Amino acid sequence: MKEKIGITTTVPVEVLLAAGKTPVDLNNIFVTSGKAKEIIERAELDGFPRNICAWIKGLYSTAVVYGIDRIIGVTEGDCSNTKSLLEVWQSKGISTVDFGFPGKRTREAVKSELDSFMEKFSVILEEVESVRKSLSSIRSKLSELDRLTWEENKVSGFENHLWQVSSSDFNGDPESFSKELDEFLEEAKCREPYPKNEIRLGYIGVPPIIDDIYSLAESNGARVVYNEVQREFTMAKSEYPDIYEMYLDFNYPYDLDTRLGEIEKQIEERKLDGIIHYTQSFCHRGIEDIVIKSRLKLPVLTIEGDLPGMADARTKLRLESFLDMMMDLKE
Ligand code: SF4
């Protein structure tokens, strides 16, 4: 049986697949486990402080509960808590492999990080490129799914989120993922489009821990037609000559200014009416809200999530009022 390697965010999955490993995104297991709250409680019982982001606690316990022996720790460009999390895992006997998106966003720096990552898994560039090419048709299909969301209006915001966010590990099995995606696309293409007068939203920031954020928007006459970070995970924004250029074009680990440039482009292209900026309680990325609100020229609602599950009454009310206001503006 192939060794399962835990990942905590998007990493060069082509390297793991070339090495014959099965990537497992711990975030996806955690939120779809059906016992996310128990998983968090377990982390707190093991000593995690209350004021640490629920994703971190979820990642920690998921690895322990699901018996993951080795994890890729993204030490640069993802989360400021990762280094400490890796130390806790190591103390529990879980081995970790470091990977970092370089501080300097240059081809040279990305190449150096990727080459060293390949060395750690004893694979060479040709093997990795061959996997990259085999995954390119899946990435193109994800781009088509995204187009069906914003251009043909046949895919819901949640479906768009789920498929794109799952491209971090292709659910551990790219072949099955590809087949299921084919079936989904086939079915989605035959749907009636969503109504033309709906409010078109962009969702930016880390993926939500709240289950019903997309359905709440839809039940109030809106739909998310752009999921920023999830789309970045697909690496499907363009066709790339090699793996270095592909990961160089990945905006999430780098500066906010470049991210906002891409967001502005998508606001224009997808004709967005408003933005939901999702922040996670106790996450350093919440500070970015200040710059986001001062730069974007359309209404932005900041929603903060804490624990997994349904949105609380206050969040529901704020979202409903925001969408009411948007509807008035649109009319
Ligand atoms: S939400 Fe923020 S603090 Fe939590 S894991 Fe993600 S980056 Fe880290």
Beta-strand fraction estimate: 5-15%
Q: How many β strands by DSSP?
A: 8
Q: What can be said about the biggest beta sheet?
A: 4 strands, parallel
Order of helices and strands: EHEHHHEHEHHHHEHEHHHEHEH
Strand order in the largest sheet:
2-1-3-4
Tally of alpha and pi helices? 15
CATH fold label of the largest domain: Rossmann fold
Q: How many angstroms separate the termini? A: 58 Å
Q: What compounds are bound to the protein?
A: iron/sulfur cluster
Proportion in helices = 40-55%
Based on CA atoms alone, the radius of gyration comes out at 19 Å
Q: Output mean pLDDT.
A: 96
Low-confidence residue ranges: none
How would the global form be characterised?
A: globular
Question: Care to describe what's here?
Answer:
It is built from 15 helices and eight strands. It has two domains: 117 residues, Rossmann fold (3-Layer(aba) Sandwich), CATH 3.40.50; 193 residues, Rossmann fold. β5, α10 and β6 form a beta-alpha-beta unit. The longest helix is centred in the middle third of the chain and has 26 residues. By secondary structure, it is an alpha/beta fold. α3 crosses α4, α4 packs parallel to α5 and α7 packs parallel to α9. Helices cover 51% and strands 14% of the residues. The strands form two sheets. It has a four-stranded parallel β-sheet. A four-stranded parallel β-sheet has the order 6-5-7-8, sandwiched between helices. The structure holds iron/sulfur cluster. The site of iron/sulfur cluster has 9 residues, from α4.
